[in-house]
Amino acid sequence: MKLIDGKALAAKMQIELQDKVEKLKERGIFPALVVILVGENPASQIYVRGKERDAAKIGILSEVVKLPETVSESELLTLIEQYNQDEKWHGILVQLPLPGHISEEKVLLAIHPEKDVDGFHPMNMGKLWAGNPVMVPSTPAGVMEMLREYKVEIEGKRAVVIGRSNIVGKPMAQMLMDKNATVTIAHSKTPDLAELCKTADILVAAIGRDRMITRDYVKAGAVVIDVGMNRDSEGKLHGDVDFDDVKDVASLITPVPGGVGLMTRTMLMVQTVKAAEKQMI
Fold first, then answer.
1. What value does the mean pLDDT of the chain take?
2. How confident is the model over 62-90, as a mean pLDDT?
3. Pick from 139, 99, 90: which is nearest to 262 by CA?
4. pLDDT (tens digit, 9 = 90+) per residue, 98-153?
5. Measuring CA to CA, how many Å separate 157 from each of 176, 201, 220?
6. Is the separation of the CB atoms in 238 and 231 below 8 Å?
7. What amino acid positions are annotated as catalytic residues?
8. What percent of the chain has pLDDT over 70?
9. How far is CA 102 from CA 38, 74, 77, 94, 96, in A?
10. 279 pLDDT more than 80
11. Among residues 22, 159, 164, 186, which is most buried (max CB within 10 A)?
Protein backbone atom coordinates (compact mmCIF):
# COMPACT_ATOMS: atom_id res chain seq x y z
CA MET A 1 0.00 0.00 0.00
CA LYS A 2 1.18 3.49 -0.90
CA LEU A 3 -0.45 6.63 0.44
CA ILE A 4 -1.69 9.33 -1.95
CA ASP A 5 -0.55 12.43 -0.09
CA GLY A 6 -3.07 15.16 -0.88
CA LYS A 7 -1.40 17.57 1.53
CA ALA A 8 1.97 17.36 -0.24
CA LEU A 9 0.45 17.65 -3.71
CA ALA A 10 -1.73 20.61 -2.68
CA ALA A 11 1.35 22.39 -1.24
CA LYS A 12 3.30 21.77 -4.45
CA MET A 13 0.48 23.08 -6.64
CA GLN A 14 0.00 26.15 -4.45
CA ILE A 15 3.67 27.07 -4.88
CA GLU A 16 3.23 26.80 -8.66
CA LEU A 17 0.11 28.98 -8.39
CA GLN A 18 2.01 31.63 -6.40
CA ASP A 19 4.43 31.96 -9.29
CA LYS A 20 1.60 32.19 -11.82
CA VAL A 21 -0.22 34.84 -9.76
CA GLU A 22 2.97 36.93 -9.47
CA LYS A 23 3.37 36.88 -13.25
CA LEU A 24 -0.28 37.91 -13.70
CA LYS A 25 0.16 40.80 -11.27
CA GLU A 26 3.14 42.01 -13.29
CA ARG A 27 0.71 42.27 -16.22
CA GLY A 28 -1.78 44.19 -14.09
CA ILE A 29 -4.11 41.23 -13.49
CA PHE A 30 -5.03 40.65 -9.85
CA PRO A 31 -6.97 37.38 -9.43
CA ALA A 32 -9.88 37.90 -7.03
CA LEU A 33 -12.43 35.56 -5.44
CA VAL A 34 -15.55 36.45 -3.49
CA VAL A 35 -17.12 33.83 -1.22
CA ILE A 36 -20.70 34.35 -0.05
CA LEU A 37 -21.59 32.58 3.19
CA VAL A 38 -25.22 32.46 4.30
CA GLY A 39 -26.01 31.57 7.90
CA GLU A 40 -23.94 29.99 10.67
CA ASN A 41 -23.33 26.42 9.45
CA PRO A 42 -20.19 25.36 11.40
CA ALA A 43 -18.81 23.09 8.65
CA SER A 44 -19.30 25.82 6.05
CA GLN A 45 -17.48 28.32 8.26
CA ILE A 46 -14.50 25.93 8.54
CA TYR A 47 -14.40 25.41 4.77
CA VAL A 48 -14.57 29.14 4.09
CA ARG A 49 -11.74 29.90 6.54
CA GLY A 50 -9.63 27.30 4.75
CA LYS A 51 -10.34 28.94 1.41
CA GLU A 52 -9.37 32.33 2.83
CA ARG A 53 -6.03 30.95 4.05
CA ASP A 54 -5.30 29.31 0.71
CA ALA A 55 -6.09 32.48 -1.22
CA ALA A 56 -3.86 34.59 1.04
CA LYS A 57 -0.98 32.13 0.70
CA ILE A 58 -1.22 32.09 -3.09
CA GLY A 59 -1.69 35.84 -3.45
CA ILE A 60 -5.31 35.80 -4.60
CA LEU A 61 -7.46 38.66 -3.34
CA SER A 62 -10.38 37.16 -1.44
CA GLU A 63 -13.40 38.59 0.30
CA VAL A 64 -15.94 36.72 2.41
CA VAL A 65 -19.43 38.19 2.49
CA LYS A 66 -21.36 36.87 5.49
CA LEU A 67 -25.14 37.08 5.28
CA PRO A 68 -27.69 36.21 7.96
CA GLU A 69 -29.71 33.02 7.59
CA THR A 70 -32.79 35.21 7.19
CA VAL A 71 -31.54 36.91 4.00
CA SER A 72 -34.12 36.65 1.23
CA GLU A 73 -33.53 34.79 -2.00
CA SER A 74 -34.00 37.99 -4.02
CA GLU A 75 -31.43 39.85 -1.91
CA LEU A 76 -28.89 37.08 -2.47
CA LEU A 77 -29.56 36.99 -6.23
CA THR A 78 -29.18 40.79 -6.41
CA LEU A 79 -25.83 40.58 -4.63
CA ILE A 80 -24.60 37.87 -7.00
CA GLU A 81 -25.53 40.00 -9.98
CA GLN A 82 -23.53 42.93 -8.54
CA TYR A 83 -20.44 40.70 -8.42
CA ASN A 84 -21.20 39.39 -11.93
CA GLN A 85 -21.05 42.96 -13.20
CA ASP A 86 -17.95 43.98 -11.21
CA GLU A 87 -14.86 43.24 -13.33
CA LYS A 88 -12.62 43.30 -10.25
CA TRP A 89 -13.96 39.86 -9.21
CA HIS A 90 -13.00 36.87 -11.34
CA GLY A 91 -14.56 34.13 -9.22
CA ILE A 92 -17.84 33.94 -7.30
CA LEU A 93 -18.55 31.11 -4.90
CA VAL A 94 -21.72 30.68 -2.85
CA GLN A 95 -21.02 28.23 -0.04
CA LEU A 96 -23.47 25.34 0.05
CA PRO A 97 -25.74 24.22 1.64
CA LEU A 98 -28.11 27.17 1.70
CA PRO A 99 -31.08 27.70 4.05
CA GLY A 100 -34.26 25.93 2.97
CA HIS A 101 -36.05 29.05 1.78
CA ILE A 102 -33.39 29.76 -0.87
CA SER A 103 -33.31 27.75 -4.11
CA GLU A 104 -29.79 26.38 -4.70
CA GLU A 105 -30.71 25.88 -8.36
CA LYS A 106 -31.61 29.57 -8.82
CA VAL A 107 -28.45 30.68 -7.01
CA LEU A 108 -26.15 28.46 -9.10
CA LEU A 109 -27.89 29.66 -12.28
CA ALA A 110 -27.37 33.29 -11.22
CA ILE A 111 -23.56 33.07 -11.17
CA HIS A 112 -22.04 33.98 -14.54
CA PRO A 113 -20.54 30.79 -16.05
CA GLU A 114 -17.13 32.47 -16.51
CA LYS A 115 -17.04 33.34 -12.79
CA ASP A 116 -18.40 29.97 -11.67
CA VAL A 117 -15.17 28.67 -10.12
CA ASP A 118 -17.08 25.84 -8.41
CA GLY A 119 -18.12 24.50 -11.83
CA PHE A 120 -21.76 23.94 -10.85
CA HIS A 121 -23.52 26.17 -13.42
CA PRO A 122 -25.59 24.02 -15.82
CA MET A 123 -23.67 25.50 -18.76
CA ASN A 124 -20.35 24.38 -17.27
CA MET A 125 -21.81 20.99 -16.35
CA GLY A 126 -23.06 20.64 -19.93
CA LYS A 127 -19.64 21.49 -21.37
CA LEU A 128 -18.07 18.85 -19.13
CA TRP A 129 -20.52 16.18 -20.34
CA ALA A 130 -20.00 17.29 -23.96
CA GLY A 131 -16.27 16.64 -23.58
CA ASN A 132 -15.35 20.34 -23.66
CA PRO A 133 -14.71 21.20 -19.97
CA VAL A 134 -14.08 24.80 -18.93
CA MET A 135 -14.96 25.27 -15.25
CA VAL A 136 -15.35 21.92 -13.50
CA PRO A 137 -16.31 20.83 -9.96
CA SER A 138 -13.26 21.10 -7.72
CA THR A 139 -13.41 17.74 -5.92
CA PRO A 140 -13.33 15.45 -8.97
CA ALA A 141 -10.80 17.79 -10.60
CA GLY A 142 -8.61 17.34 -7.52
CA VAL A 143 -8.97 13.55 -7.74
CA MET A 144 -7.84 13.62 -11.38
CA GLU A 145 -4.75 15.64 -10.39
CA MET A 146 -3.94 13.02 -7.74
CA LEU A 147 -4.24 10.20 -10.24
CA ARG A 148 -2.00 12.10 -12.68
CA GLU A 149 0.62 12.89 -10.02
CA TYR A 150 0.82 9.26 -8.92
CA LYS A 151 0.90 8.06 -12.56
CA VAL A 152 -2.22 5.93 -12.22
CA GLU A 153 -3.09 4.39 -15.57
CA ILE A 154 -6.73 5.21 -16.36
CA GLU A 155 -7.16 4.24 -20.00
CA GLY A 156 -8.77 0.86 -20.38
CA LYS A 157 -9.26 0.44 -16.63
CA ARG A 158 -12.53 -0.30 -14.89
CA ALA A 159 -13.65 2.43 -12.48
CA VAL A 160 -16.53 2.36 -10.02
CA VAL A 161 -17.79 5.64 -8.53
CA ILE A 162 -20.02 5.17 -5.46
CA GLY A 163 -22.27 8.22 -5.29
CA ARG A 164 -24.28 10.09 -7.93
CA SER A 165 -24.29 13.70 -6.76
CA ASN A 166 -23.85 16.59 -9.18
CA ILE A 167 -20.97 17.82 -7.01
CA VAL A 168 -18.83 14.66 -7.06
CA GLY A 169 -20.27 11.42 -8.42
CA LYS A 170 -21.55 12.42 -11.86
CA PRO A 171 -18.69 14.76 -12.84
CA MET A 172 -16.16 12.26 -11.44
CA ALA A 173 -17.54 9.57 -13.72
CA GLN A 174 -17.39 11.86 -16.74
CA MET A 175 -13.79 12.91 -16.08
CA LEU A 176 -12.73 9.27 -15.81
CA MET A 177 -14.60 8.45 -19.03
CA ASP A 178 -12.79 11.33 -20.74
CA LYS A 179 -9.56 9.48 -19.92
CA ASN A 180 -10.98 6.28 -21.47
CA ALA A 181 -11.88 4.38 -18.32
CA THR A 182 -14.92 2.11 -18.34
CA VAL A 183 -17.04 3.64 -15.61
CA THR A 184 -19.96 2.43 -13.49
CA ILE A 185 -21.84 4.80 -11.18
CA ALA A 186 -23.12 2.95 -8.11
CA HIS A 187 -25.24 4.21 -5.22
CA SER A 188 -27.25 3.18 -2.18
CA LYS A 189 -29.85 1.36 -4.32
CA THR A 190 -27.28 -0.68 -6.30
CA PRO A 191 -27.74 -4.41 -5.67
CA ASP A 192 -24.66 -6.48 -4.74
CA LEU A 193 -22.67 -3.28 -4.25
CA ALA A 194 -19.65 -5.01 -2.71
CA GLU A 195 -19.38 -7.46 -5.63
CA LEU A 196 -19.58 -4.61 -8.13
CA CYS A 197 -16.93 -2.58 -6.29
CA LYS A 198 -14.58 -5.57 -6.32
CA THR A 199 -14.44 -5.34 -10.12
CA ALA A 200 -12.90 -1.85 -9.92
CA ASP A 201 -9.29 -1.04 -10.72
CA ILE A 202 -10.11 2.49 -9.51
CA LEU A 203 -12.70 2.84 -6.73
CA VAL A 204 -14.01 6.28 -5.79
CA ALA A 205 -16.11 6.41 -2.60
CA ALA A 206 -18.39 9.44 -2.38
CA ILE A 207 -21.50 8.06 -0.70
CA GLY A 208 -21.38 9.98 2.61
CA ARG A 209 -21.45 7.00 4.98
CA ASP A 210 -18.83 6.72 7.69
CA ARG A 211 -16.31 3.91 6.96
CA MET A 212 -18.84 1.94 4.93
CA ILE A 213 -16.29 0.63 2.43
CA THR A 214 -14.36 -2.29 3.95
CA ARG A 215 -11.89 -4.73 2.39
CA ASP A 216 -14.90 -6.78 1.20
CA TYR A 217 -15.55 -4.06 -1.37
CA VAL A 218 -11.99 -3.74 -2.67
CA LYS A 219 -10.17 -5.70 -5.36
CA ALA A 220 -6.57 -6.57 -4.49
CA GLY A 221 -4.27 -3.89 -5.90
CA ALA A 222 -7.06 -1.38 -6.59
CA VAL A 223 -6.57 2.38 -6.33
CA VAL A 224 -8.97 3.66 -3.65
CA ILE A 225 -10.02 7.32 -3.54
CA ASP A 226 -11.98 8.36 -0.45
CA VAL A 227 -14.03 11.53 -0.96
CA GLY A 228 -16.07 11.11 2.24
CA MET A 229 -15.92 13.53 5.16
CA ASN A 230 -17.89 12.24 8.14
CA ARG A 231 -17.57 13.21 11.80
CA ASP A 232 -18.13 10.68 14.56
CA SER A 233 -19.73 11.40 17.96
CA GLU A 234 -16.38 12.71 19.24
CA GLY A 235 -16.01 15.07 16.29
CA LYS A 236 -13.23 13.05 14.67
CA LEU A 237 -13.10 13.08 10.87
CA HIS A 238 -13.45 9.83 8.93
CA GLY A 239 -13.92 8.96 5.30
CA ASP A 240 -16.36 6.64 3.55
CA VAL A 241 -13.58 4.03 3.50
CA ASP A 242 -12.48 2.04 6.55
CA PHE A 243 -8.85 3.01 6.02
CA ASP A 244 -7.32 0.54 8.48
CA ASP A 245 -9.27 -2.35 7.00
CA VAL A 246 -8.60 -1.47 3.35
CA LYS A 247 -5.01 -0.16 3.38
CA ASP A 248 -3.41 -3.60 3.04
CA VAL A 249 -5.62 -4.53 0.06
CA ALA A 250 -5.25 -1.34 -2.02
CA SER A 251 -2.14 -0.44 -4.02
CA LEU A 252 -2.82 3.29 -3.55
CA ILE A 253 -5.21 4.94 -1.09
CA THR A 254 -6.12 8.46 0.04
CA PRO A 255 -6.30 9.21 3.77
CA VAL A 256 -8.97 11.27 5.53
CA PRO A 257 -7.98 13.88 6.52
CA GLY A 258 -4.96 14.75 4.36
CA GLY A 259 -6.33 13.49 1.06
CA VAL A 260 -8.99 14.78 -1.29
CA GLY A 261 -10.24 17.70 0.84
CA LEU A 262 -7.07 19.77 0.52
CA MET A 263 -7.02 19.18 -3.23
CA THR A 264 -10.61 20.40 -3.53
CA ARG A 265 -9.62 23.78 -2.10
CA THR A 266 -6.50 23.95 -4.26
CA MET A 267 -8.47 23.28 -7.45
CA LEU A 268 -10.80 26.13 -6.50
CA MET A 269 -7.76 28.42 -6.49
CA VAL A 270 -6.55 26.96 -9.80
CA GLN A 271 -9.90 27.82 -11.37
CA THR A 272 -9.94 31.33 -9.89
CA VAL A 273 -6.58 32.01 -11.55
CA LYS A 274 -7.84 30.41 -14.76
CA ALA A 275 -10.91 32.67 -14.67
CA ALA A 276 -8.71 35.73 -14.21
CA GLU A 277 -6.59 34.73 -17.21
CA LYS A 278 -9.64 33.99 -19.36
CA GLN A 279 -11.50 37.19 -18.51
CA MET A 280 -8.50 39.31 -19.40
CA ILE A 281 -7.98 37.85 -22.90
1. 95
2. 97
3. 139
4. 999 999 999 999 999 999 999 999 999 999 999 999 999 999 999 999 999 999 99
5. 10, 6, 14
6. yes
7. 51, 95, 118
8. 99
9. 10, 9, 10, 12, 11
10. no
11. 159
